[in-house]
Automatic annotation (TrEMBL):
Any one GO molecular-function label of the UniProt entry: cysteine-type peptidase activity
NlpC/P60 domain location: 46-168
Gene3D superfamilies in the cross-refs: endopeptidase domain like (from Nostoc punctiforme)
Taxonomy, superkingdom: Bacteria
Example GO biological process: proteolysis
Organism listed in the record: Pedobacter changchengzhani
Protein name: NlpC/P60 family protein
InterPro entries with a match to the protein in the record: Murein_DD/LD_carboxypeptidase, NLP_P60_dom, Papain-like_cys_pep_sf
Keyword annotations from UniProtKB, A to Z: Hydrolase, Protease, Signal, Thiol protease
């Protein structure tokens, strides 16, 4: 009877361990749909141009390098220059300040996928540029985070946005 008790105890512990392990494997991990990353992913998935989607995903994470024009490092105006040329077949000046002079101004509410957004972080002159995607998101080469899809509604961007529009 003592041997039977130890076999039952052994069987009980084995079943308990198996149940515990199987319940751990059944957990579902989800991303909250209200996180910044989820919203950026939603903006990317809503792009009309799949070529634009591929271009952005191919460049996402490339580090910022002033004057850079390749995947070893790129600056904001270089990124916009390459994107507009490859995706839309449009040639822009190389510098963001000059790019701002090559657009037809539009209200932020009327922007379309591929329109440009200009910022002035250091005073009155344009010193940063990005490309509008949709739903308040844009892609740019951030000096601290490299090429990234970002939320245009953040106060940090709202305070320094100076111009937006379409290429002439």
């Amino acid at each position: 009877m003592n041997k039977n008790l130890s076999n039952n105890t052994y069987l009980f512990y084995l079943i308990a361990i198996l149940l515990c392990l199987s319940s751990c494997g059944a957990r579902k991990y989800t991303v909250k749909s209200d996180t910044k990353a989820a919203k950026a992913a939603d903006a990317m998935s809503a792009l009309k141009s799949k070529q634009l989607y591929r271009f952005i995903t191919d460049w996402t994470g490339v580090k910022y390098r002033f004057g850079g024009m390749d995947k070893s490092g790129i600056d904001c105006s270089g990124f916009v220059y390459l994107l507009e040329k490859e995706i839309y077949g449009k040639t822009l000046p190389r510098i963001s300040r000059d790019q701002a002079n090559a657009i037809r101004t539009k209200n932020l509410a009327n922007l379309n996928e591929g329109d440009l957004i200009f910022f002035s972080f250091g005073g009155k002159d344009v010193d940063h540029v990005g490309v509008y995607l949709n739903d308040g998101f844009f892609v740019h080469a951030s000096t601290t985070r490299g090429v990234i899809v970002d939320d245009l509604t953040l106060p940090a961007y709202q305070k320094v946005m100076v111009k937006s529009g379409s290429i002439n």
